[in-house]
Amino acid sequence: xxxxxxxxxxxxxxxxxxxxxxxxxxxxxxxxxxxxxxxxxxxxxxxxxxxxxxxxxxxxxxxxxxxxxxxxxxxxxxxxxxxxxxxxxxxxxxxxxxxxxxxxxxxxxxxxxxxxxxxxxxxxxxxxxxxxxxxxxxxxxxxxxxxxxxxxxxxxxxxxxxxxxxxxxxxxxxxxxxxxxxxxxxxxxxxxxxxxxxxxxxxxxxxxxxxxxxxxxxxxxxxxxxxxxxxxxxxxxxxxxxxxxxxxxxxxxxxxxxxxxxxxxxxxxxxxxxxxxxxxxxxxxxxxxxxxxxxxxxxxxxxxxxxxxxxxxxxxxxxxxxxxxxxx
Amino acid sequence: xxxxxxxxxxxxxxxxxxxxxxxxxxxxxxxxxxxxxxxxxxxxxxxxxxxxxxxxxxxxxxxxxxxxxxxxxxxxxxxxxxxxxxxxxxxxxxxxxxxxxxxxxxxxxxxxxxxxxxxxxxxxxxxxxxxxxxxxxxxxxxxxxxxxxxxxxxxxxxxxxxxxxxxxxxxxxxxxxxxxxxxxxxxxxxxxxxxxxxxxxxxxxxxxxxxxxxxxxxxxxxxxxxxxxxxxxxxxxxxxxxxxxxxxxxxxxxxxxxxxxxxxxxxxxxxxxxxxxxxxxxxxxxxxxxxxxxxxxxxxxxxxxxxxxxxxxxxxxxxxxxxxxxxxxxxxxxxxxxxxxxxxxxxxxxxxxxxxxxxxxxxxxxxxxxxxxxxxxxxxxxxxxxxxxxxxxxxxxxxxxxxxxxxxxxxxxxxxxxxxxxxxxxxxxxxxxxxxxxxxxxxxxxxxxxxxxxxxxxxxxxxxxxxxxxxxxxxxxxxxxxxxxxxxxxxxxxxxxxxxxxxxxxxxxxxxxxxxxxxxxxxxxxxxxxxxxxxxxxxxxxxxxxxxxxxxxxxxxxxxxxxxxxxxxxxxxxxxxxxxxxxxxxxxxxxxxxxxxxxxxxxxxxxxxxxxxxxxxxxxxxxxxxxxxxxxxxxxxxxxxxxxxxxxxxxxxxxxxxxxxxxxxxxxxxxxxxxxxxxxxxxxxxxxxxxxxxxxxxxxxxxxxxxxxxxxxxxxxxxxxxxxxxxxxxxxxxxxxxxxxxxxxxxxxxxxxxxxxxxxxxxxxxxxxxxxxxxxxxxxxxxxxxxxxxxxxxxxxxxxxxxxxxxxxxxxxxxxxxxxxxxxxx
Lengths: 328, 826
Description:
- Chain A is of the alpha/beta class.
- Chain A has helices at 11-22, 52-59, 78-98, 135-149, 171-183, 201-214, 236-247, 258-275, 284-291, 299-305, 313-327, and strands at residues 2-6, 26-31, 42-46, 64-67, 103-107, 119-122, 156-162, 165-166, 187-189, 195-196, 199-200, 224-228, 234-235, 254-256, 294-296.
- In chain A, strand 1, helix 1 and strand 2 form a beta-alpha-beta unit.
- The termini of chain A are far apart.
């Protein structure tokens, strides 16, 4: 199978490309800045996802697409988020039609359906739109809706929303927690007792690949969204402390009441961009994520595309600790 | 108003597609427009359930049933004429209302026999229709209704007020008082949506004509136009040959238990399920769907046969009068150090029996015995048994509220007790029209020498002897009915299992058990303790009672034994003479038994397993328990002789699972109780017939090992249903309890069944309850190995029941943990 992977500059998508290549698939990595290919089965394609022409060109001859290119974070205008995340997805869908590609995995995020209440054992609910700020979540939601609407007789589309991905090399979750813990700036929202799902990086990769293999037109997962995780929810406290433990840094967070964190997050989101160019230390979304329970029913993924996590949390933390030991 | 708008129906939770109107040719030679709700069944052959509302409601009353009833049935709920959204035709008499239902059924061309479900005056109309058209009716489910004012009772005061003169129009028509008041009657309470739904058609006074007419049609005297019509229906009820099941909200101030009893007296095939926490609108406050489904399915199968012992080997009181023992100590009461010989007891029981008869207690009457554990309590219970009265024995361990609910649910005709209890029962209206008998008056009438002087027929094996109460650890305590035959068989099995003979004597620190002493013909001692709190039994009090009685046996709950150990001193010489210590009621920690062995070096430690409904089921000695060793759950030993035990699937299975598999423990024994009291649905779920026996579902989950030992792994309702499969709590808990510093453990599930996550809650010395330390969490996870524990929580005290101080309420704990782990609270 020849697979177009967009956004392969990220840890998750890069890893997926690598694994596909290793099992014998031909992979076209679509990236803004190409890097050296790490495998003979990987072809690099430099392009901008907002440019329909280059997307169509890259997809030529492919059987399947894993679309993970996205603008992330909270910095930037709505137009910037929209053009990359929504228009970029439109470009992918057109390319799929043009080249009669029959499988598409849309790499989504749990925040497309997140409303701030505790989620305890739910399945993925439909993406919602209409947020006033939160450009990332809003644009990803609009794009997921577009992608799933394109599911049909010729194209099978599945959306995968990996929940809190972490692992060796992860700069998003692990990197930030460890950096702040080192600086003594780690903040715990609320009691820290909220139970949350997380996904060890290898499991997140295997979920996308399993979905790719299953999503033929009309297959059980076609047209649906799945939240995937390790299926081992833990308290926020435990997750953070074990990440710190793996990194060998002290875990002594400052506690911030949940309601204050949410309001602070909203405020920071608005004020921060006026002064800074980097990502703010706290956002409303993060505050809600870490202050309320978020764990999901993993049975749909198992039933519909026969996927189960293979690396347990315990094993994941062992690997994380080894990685920190090696890179130190 | 012609019909409710789709918007309104949506707002009050009804599917707009259910709402219909139909022009119905009437027996009054006109045509009337009816509004009705119709939830279709799976296909055209679906049996029809026709729901008749009362006053002042409308078909909305059945909204829950419409939503919840199995799709095998078609559910139709009309608004009576002049009510709800049906045509306003002015006031209508009972006779016309019954004929209206025939008109409606004919118009809808319902050909097969119908199940009528009705509430309030809808019930009276349903009964009228059933006696007029028996061929059209398959059965009735009635809720808080009536056909006549019960004997000895005035008409419901609320209705009387509403129907009287000037007030009538004010209450029922000019203001919305009656309509709104109904939605606020005592009960479990309605949601705001339900209240909105109930009053929706009655917001304007001209819509309330029907309500006033309905109330005016309640005949309070024989001059009333409808009096004869209703009286005729009432008179014909005994001829009604279909099953009638009553779903009764116990808090209804209008159609209360008296009305239920009146119907029970009139009907031949009738059963009641009393809903303790619900009121007049029980059909809306609670889910009635399962009850209706059970009623229908039960009518198609044969009723289960009677249970167990049908012969009495020996009456319960026969040994009291045994000539060889007249001078032997019968009962010693440690509280006031009083005692009686068997000859005295014989006289007291006989005299009490005569006194009860003189004060109007008849054979078959139910008598609440509100006397603290004492010689008088025991004498009174045997006196009741002797004259064939049914003793209602509810102990203070249920708490005052629980005790009141127990007495109330038993519908006693008499309350016997010490003055304070009788006054309480009267003021709290536990038994509104019962006769109250002061214990003192019975004592003052002492005059007989012994039971032999009573010229009175003896009750037979099938006669009801007692209603005992479950501990009510979860929900209201349930009354359990025992016959003389069953109690006799229970005495015989206890005697056989524990080799009880004449020279034995025993001290009971658990009142219901002490009652068996005289039946066994042995000396009985009551230890000085607060009966409401087993943990108040001190070593000294127990030893004193043993000394006074020369006890060879001791019975005490695990909590009581724990306190005995805590208060033990060195000079407890009488305990050293004991040959048998029995402890039951909740799992007994093995360490408690080992330590008891030091206090009672000669004694065998036994832990009988059973429940209020069947006791004993199995027995295990400490020796056997140590030989069995560790396993999944708590070993309770091998079933006692003549007790059948099997393991079935937890979803209501009847066939035995392959050996070793975990499932619900079901038992059958000759001493098994007859069943529950006024809880028909509970009874239907708990009992089933198979292999020629009647079985009781214990609600416990466990397995049988290869040696035939029964292991209990928890309660069915406490099972944790994870995505990887179902897990029983006790095996996890026993493993965690081996971790040092952990006194007790509880495994609970959070989330919906099927994807539940496991949380372990540990009772430790931790002052502030909180998430456990990382080290302890690791220890727990390592100890449990294969199952995933999402969080470990430490607390100083796990929530336990009042009576035994040891049954953990895992359901409540699970809800609390879910809240904690949602991040919403600490």
